[in-house]
Write a structure and sequence with these properties.
Number of helices: 10
Number of strands: 14
Bound molecules: adenosine-5'-triphosphate, magnesium ion
CATH topology of the largest domain: Nucleotidyltransferase, domain 5
Strand order of the largest sheet: 8-4-1-2-3-14
CATH architecture of the largest domain: 2-Layer Sandwich
Number of domains: 2
Radius of gyration: 20 Å
Structural class: alpha/beta
Oligomer: single chain
């Protein structure tokens, strides 16, 4: 730590469709300390699923959250999710690192449904590639145009984007730092946001499965707006004050019920899909995060629908909270901050 360490640190910046979330961590002897955290709501439409509709207003929101939370880091790690990202797991025979590089390029041309010149491509070898036998490789492709619009918004806020990750992997990172420790538990992580729900299955620090569902809290708000002929703000307020049961008992209750049921069904299908391809491996525990997990009664509904041990993911479980953080607002925002925490942790890798 020196006088100029503020310039050295890296903040996690999650550009979600309902709000911009920022987290700054620092390393302390016992692990990590949360230095600053906060979120700034976005106008509806500023960020549609995966794409930035209005880079100027996003840049403005980023600037506001950085100044209000007094985040000094100027370099950030951010992420993409939804349709703009494709994640595929490849199983390749044992081969030399050079051959592996070549195979990955070849496989990418087969499995990525876009021209490779239109995507950013990255991969991660899972486990030890030199151990012999098959090698598992995680291939990630993100549409360049989607990444570019995010970089533009970040540069517009006077910040330097250093790392572009994927929501699901950032979520896994946050889980690992707080619960992982090489844990042998097969855990499903559900991050239920506004437009996207990230589903990740992980064990022992290795992502086994990841999928983004086009579902989240916006569907409930949108339905309330339409059925009650009210504006976004009012629909949001009614949603947050009511919770699942009151919503289902009120006007448009049947439609709202079917949105909740569809979300449950999609999550269930994803977990079934993982188990079907996992040769007898089953999910032992579920961790839930994302702003929409704050909807009263939703976690209980998930619990009974999935019939698995389930608990809210606390992204600060093993992270000390610094003096500059307002604990009360942190407690309220914590479910939404999981991805931003995972992104901030990227600054400490390598
Ligand atoms: N206390 C609450 N009760 C009910 N819903 C809530 C509550 N807090 C946040 N939400 C809902 O959670 C959603 C926002 O969650 P989150 O911040 O995780 O999404 P995001 O990252 O902005 O969006 P994306 O889906 O694009 O990643 C909104 O639909 C919002 O209405
Ligand atoms: Mg999000």
């Amino acid at each position: 730590m020196g006088l100029f360490s503020g310039g050295e640190t890296l903040a996690g910046l999650d550009l979600g469709s309902s709000a911009v979330k920022a987290v700054e961590l620092r390393r302390v002897r016992a692990g990590f300390e949360l230095v600053r955290a906060g979120l700034e709501p976005l106008e509806p439409g500023a960020v549609a699923e995966g794409a930035i509709g209005d880079p100027d207003s996003v840049a403005e929101a980023v600037r506001r959250v950085f100044s209000r939370c007094r985040i000094r880091a100027r370099r950030v790690a951010t992420s993409v999710s939804g349709h703009s990202v494709i994640v595929k797991k490849l199983t390749l025979p044992a081969m030399s690192p050079e051959e592996l590089e070549e195979s990955i390029q070849w496989e990418a041309r087969q499995v990525i449904p876009f021209d490779l010149s239109d995507v950013h491509l990255d991969h991660q070898v899972l486990g030890d590639a030199s151990a012999g036998g098959d090698t598992q490789v995680l291939l990630v492709a993100a549409r360049k145009e989607r990444v570019a619009s995010r970089l533009e918004a970040i540069a517009g806020a006077g910040l330097s984007p250093l790392i572009v990750d994927v929501d699901g992997f950032a979520l896994q990172n946050a889980y690992e730092a707080n619960y992982g420790d090489g844990s042998a538990v097969t855990a499903a992580l559900l991050h239920i946001g506004a437009a996207v729900t990230n589903v990740v299955v992980t064990r022992g620090g290795v992502p086994l499965f990841t999928r983004d569902l086009s579902a989240g809290g916006n569907q409930l708000t949108g339905l309330l707006q339409k059925e009650l002929r009210i504006g976004f703000e009012e629909a949001e307020r009614i949603k947050r004050e009511s919770g699942v049961e009151a919503l289902e008992a009120g006007p448009a209750g049947a439609l709202l019920h079917s949105v909740v049921e569809t979300l449950l069904l999609e999550i269930r299908k994803s977990l079934d899909l993982f188990e079907a391809g996992a040769e007898g491996e089953s999910i032992q525990r579920v961790y839930v995060s994302g702003g929409c997990s704050g909807l009263a009664g939703l976690v209980e509904r998930l619990q009974s629908g999935l019939d698995l041990p389930l608990e809210p993911l606390d992204p600060f479980k093993s992270i000390a909270v610094g003096r500059g953080v307002n604990e009360e607002s942190l407690y309220r925002q914590a479910p939404s901050l999981a991805v931003a925490v995972g992104l901030a942790l990227r600054g400490f890798h390598d």
